[in-house]
């Protein structure tokens, strides 16, 4: 009980730091959550400067803590989230609205990232070196707001923060994280899944790092 009250209080403080006064605990966070881009008023996002904040806070150049990130995600003002875990680890849950780019595959898909002025958070299972190195690489490529989530997915779920469990689209059999094979050859993983005019379509992230969009199940070995 005390931990729940403390967590709620910390989230409210985080929201006020972004001049967002509504209660994060009462904001709907269930699927589908798709808005994880730019805040409605970017002027309310503190500038990136040297130094560490709470866990660390929004002013840290390299890392961001769970407390601050969940406040942004719940409020709808979160950054783009990139999950770099192996697909098998994503099947049971991802941060709301996260994009799946296993390992370093985001390097060959920079065209799918937001403008370099936007914020990006990279996370892995435990907040290890891989996510730190990838965030650092993105900063050298111009995404100065790229940061690593401290503690990764493990700490996120340890504190019962909101997650999305990948689901197959209406009438479909596949969901994010599932391995696939094209009938014409080539293996990959489902990166996005949607239903378009009653037909399930997928975006596939292939083993060679390329992306294939609007793929129907009739072209896959099921």
Keywords for this entry:
19% strand, 4-stranded antiparallel sheet, 2 domains, 222 residues, 5-stranded parallel sheet, 5 helices, globular, Oxidized Rhodanese, domain 1
What's the domain count?
A: 2
Number of strands: 9
SSE series: HEHEHEEHEHEEEE
Runs with pLDDT <50, length 5+?
Answer: 1-6, 17-46, 49-53
Order of adjacent strands in the largest pleated sheet: 1-5-4-2-3
Helix share bin? 10-25%
The name of the CATH architecture of the largest domain is: 3-Layer(aba) Sandwich
Structural class: alpha/beta
> Quaternary state, please?
single chain
Overall shape: globular
CATH superfamily of the largest domain, by name, is Rhodanese-like domain
Distance between the termini: 47 Å
Total number of helical segments?
5
Fraction of residues in β-strands: 15-25%
Description:
This protein is an alpha/beta fold. The chain has 2 domains: 2-158, 3-Layer(aba) Sandwich (Oxidized Rhodanese, domain 1); 179-219. It is built from 5 helices and 9 strands; from the N terminus they run H-E-H-E-H-E-E-H-E-H-E-E-E-E. It has helices spanning 2-17, 66-75, 87-90, 129-140, 152-158, and strands spanning 63-64, 80-83, 99-100, 120-123, 146-149, 179-181, 187-196, 199-206, 211-216. The strands form 2 sheets. A 5-stranded parallel β-sheet has the order 1-5-4-2-3. It has a 4-stranded antiparallel β-sheet with strand order 6-7-8-9, with no helix packed on it. Strand 7 (187-196) and strand 8 form a beta hairpin. Helix 1 packs across helix 2 (66-75). The longest helix is centred in the N-terminal third of the chain and has 16 residues, at 2-17. Mean pLDDT is 81; it is low at 1-6, 17-46 and 49-53.
